[in-house]
Amino acid sequence: MDKFVISGGKPLSGDIPVSGAKNSALPALAASLLTSETVVLRRIPRVKDIRTMMGLLSSIGASVEEDAGTVTLRLGGAVTPEAPYELVKTMRASSLVLGPLVARHGRARVSMPGGCAIGARPINLHVQGLEHLGAVVTQSHGYIEAVAPEGGLRGSTVHFDRITVTGTEDLMMAAVLAKGETVLENAAREPEVQDLAVLLNKMGARVEGAGTSRIRIEGVEALHGADHAIIPDRIEAGTFLIAGAMAGGDVTVSGCEPEHLTALVAKLRQAGAEISTVGEGVLRVRRSGGLRATDITTEEHPGFPTDLQAQYLALMTQAEGISFITETIFENRFMHAPELQRMGASIRIEGRQAIVAGPRPLSGAQVMSSDLRASASLVIAGLVASGETIVDRVYHLDRGYERMDEKLARVGATIRRTS
Ligand code: EPU
Known about the structure:
Structural class: alpha/beta
Distance between the termini: 6 Å
Number of strands: 25
Largest sheet: 5 strands, mixed
Shape: elongated
Bound molecules: uridine-diphosphate-2(N-acetylglucosaminyl) butyric acid
Oligomer: single chain
């Protein structure tokens, strides 16, 4: 198992290019199941979750070719409409094949995800939505089987009880081939949902309102092929902005979409970091003085993203004062806190809130990754810790960050990967 060995205490300086968004690429890959024509997706990040999704699509029957970040997909022949437990247990986003498979192939059998390190993460809202479109859904042996009615799915109004990102995406993909109009109420407004709508419309779908909480979809008979470049990864960009604010120095993050980062940028400025736009898609982060404690509460987009909470918490260990970090999206997303405490941070967890007292000097230690974003927070902490920090189980990190060690080393961090 790979580890990162980090020697902290060096300011960062230089440019970090951002990759394509993992959480946009995953539904885009699944959308290729909606047509028999060729779909070309560009700027696909080379991360483990993407390889898992490509493996799933091949096992379903698609031909999948990858070349330098461009993936070409075609599902022309026989289809095995199934997402097995072995894949779903490693990546919950596998449930994104549910909607497109039922819509175009009339049937899908997808393993139920079970719990994970950050919470229960059920898919009941995906299932309820499909039932509204007429699918008959049954559950047995740990699998969900959804079957479209005679004549295919039928458009309907779906009101999500709570906002779900992949649930919204799954239902959008089901509704594009349903008969008549579907309205998704209380839909997720994340940029990744908007990106999927752009791709679906390029494929001939009629999706309106993505990016708002009401999405209207007029079903069409069939979709065709398309060529689409994935949006930049706002969570990767945000992670590097936080790393820059933490380590000090002068870092630019290029190829990002500042519009997608407004909640984080506002908080970083409040905390004392200087953030400026220095060109199209380029944000610069510097810091002349110390950091100030600032509270955050995670929310659905456009609020502060839960996927940056762990990294921001690491930053607050170095800020003057007490900060309150409130997690409202997932029930168990503070697994990084005990590891940061082992490095010397002062953090108290009270239910869904972490109370961080700073600044506390961090000292390098051997720490364990528990999930993707928690791992990123440990790496960020390692950048300012004295001595050596060893982050174990970086396979969690490799699920969603493309060559994070190399990107940080290029801007002056002392970080290396060992097996
Ligand atoms: N939920 C339900 N029922 C459902 C679906 C969700 O109760 O059927 C609950 C979840 O348990 C959670 C909340 O609703 O408490 C929100 O979950 P959501 O469905 O929005 O999460 P997701 O779609 O499974 C995506 C990202 C996550 C990100 C969340 C929240 C992808 C592939 N994953 O997950 O990304 O944290 O939205 O923004 O898009 C990551 O990249 O590290 C990551 C975990």
